[in-house]
């Protein structure tokens, strides 16, 4: 068993060792984290030498820079303001509602952007790449596809339309570039790849937008309405939404495909709205049809003299006994089952006015087929 004297000697030794260690650490700390002084002439007090850059940028970098410098001439900043009246003085003032990006469609001053960028605007101001500002008018809008066309009066030499590409032949992994002019500060560029194809998203009108391009190129709120480009600078989509549970960029952005844009924009320029192909019928709301336990689209009313009327389709009617007799029930279009109005409108997207479709209908509990030529509907 250790004697009391040996224990005391051990404790004394430990205490002395701890004191020496503490003194050593204090001495080291005295020179640590302190300025070297004005007379110090070592290398740490001088700028570090610059490492020489490579003789040339990589081919991919040069291509990206060229696309950006060319495309920025076409990308614009859009400011949306509302007119409000002071309730006491009755003075009017412009109140900013939001902003976004857009791009030049043609030399005649037509611009394309998202519908949600200009929604509710009383005045719209567009800033071009040369920083000139122009008042814009809304030519047409299609909320169902989140697209709108504006027009400004500007010299043709300030208007540089983007080259139009295609979206039907895009491939996952293909490089893309998203360009915007957020907040009117300056143009921004983000790059990425096509992450997925054929996605569906909801528009402001709660309609489904089909064939959407998904990308991991960062799309921030100020970039909405700006172009998504392929590696050669061709337009392949209009940036419209991000998925962000936290409110921050999460690597999932969506663009309306250019094939859709190139079909709709000319219609908006010509008519101010999208002229859709339709049957010339009014349908019973889905919620009521579901409550009835019916699968399909129930025709409520047939427009007199329209395509459905000429094809012999029937709407709901009142019998002599005072009972309501249901109209024809559409269960398929060109062999594809259909159960909701939204689904029917999606099937109509690929068709034009004048096209003929074959409807499978149920009338008096019997299934039959009817051919109908599509007519223009609002």
Automatic annotation (TrEMBL):
Q: Which residues form the signal peptide?
A: 1-29
- What EC number is given for this enzyme? 3.4.21.-
**GO molecular-function term, one example from the UniProt record:** serine-type endopeptidase activity
- Gene3D superfamilies assigned: 2.30.42.10, Trypsin-like serine proteases
For whether the record's keyword set contains Protease, the answer is yes
Provide the alphabetized UniProt keywords: Hydrolase, Protease, Serine protease, Signal
Q: Where is the PDZ domain?
A: 268-365
GO annotation, biological process: proteolysis
PANTHER family reported for this sequence? PEPTIDASE S12 (PTHR43343), PROTEASE DO-LIKE 8, CHLOROPLASTIC (PTHR43343:SF3)
The UniProt similarity line reads:
Belongs to the peptidase S1C family.
Please report the name of this protein according to its UniProt entry: Peptidase S1C, HtrA family
Annotated source species: Nitrospira lenta
Q: Taxonomic lineage per UniProt?
A: Bacteria, Pseudomonadati, Nitrospirota, Nitrospiria, Nitrospirales
């Amino acid at each position: 068993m250790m004697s009391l004297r040996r224990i005391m000697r051990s404790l004394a030794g430990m205490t002395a060792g701890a004191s020496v260690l503490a003194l050593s650490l204090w001495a080291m700390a005295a020179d640590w984290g302190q300025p070297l002084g004005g007379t110090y002439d070592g290398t740490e007090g001088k700028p570090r030498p610059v490492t020489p850059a490579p003789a040339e940028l990589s081919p991919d970098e040069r291509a990206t820079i060229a696309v950006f410098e060319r495309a920025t001439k076409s990308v614009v900043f859009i400011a949306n303001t509302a007119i409000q009246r002071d309730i006491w003085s009755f003075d009017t003032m412009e109140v900013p509602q939001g902003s976004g990006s857009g791009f030049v469609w043609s030399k005649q001053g037509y611009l394309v952007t998202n519908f949600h960028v200009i929604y509710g605007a009383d005045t719209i101001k567009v800033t071009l790449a040369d920083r000139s500002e122009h008042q814009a008018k809304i030519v047409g809008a299609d909320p169902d596809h989140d697209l709108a066309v504006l027009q400004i009066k500007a010299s043709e030499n300030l208007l540089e339309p983007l080259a139009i590409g295609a979206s039907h032949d895009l491939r996952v992994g293909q490089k893309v570039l998203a360009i915007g002019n957020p907040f009117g500060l300056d143009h921004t560029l983000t790059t990425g790849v096509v992450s997925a194809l054929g996605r569906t998203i909801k528009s402001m009108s709660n309609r489904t937008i089909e064939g959407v391009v998904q990308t991991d190129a960062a799309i921030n709120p100020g970039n909405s309405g700006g172009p998504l480009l392929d590696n050669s600078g061709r337009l392949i989509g209009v940036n419209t939404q991000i998925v962000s549970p936290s409110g921050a960029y999460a690597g999932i952005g969506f663009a309306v495909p250019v094939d859709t844009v190139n079909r709709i924009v000319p219609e908006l320029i010509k008519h101010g709205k999208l002229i859709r192909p339709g049957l010339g019928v009014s349908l019973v709301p889905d919620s009521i049809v579901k409550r009835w336990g019916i699968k399909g689209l129930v025709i409520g009313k047939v427009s007199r003299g329209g395509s459905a009327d000429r094809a012999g389709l029937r709407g709901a009617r009142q019998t002599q006994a005072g009972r309501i007799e249901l109209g024809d029930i559409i269960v398929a279009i060109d062999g594809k089952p259909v159960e909701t109005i939204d689904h029917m409108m999606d099937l109509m997207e690929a068709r034009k006015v004048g096209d003929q479709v074959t409807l499978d209908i149920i009338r008096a509990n019997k299934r039959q087929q009817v051919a109908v030529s599509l007519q223009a509907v609002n």
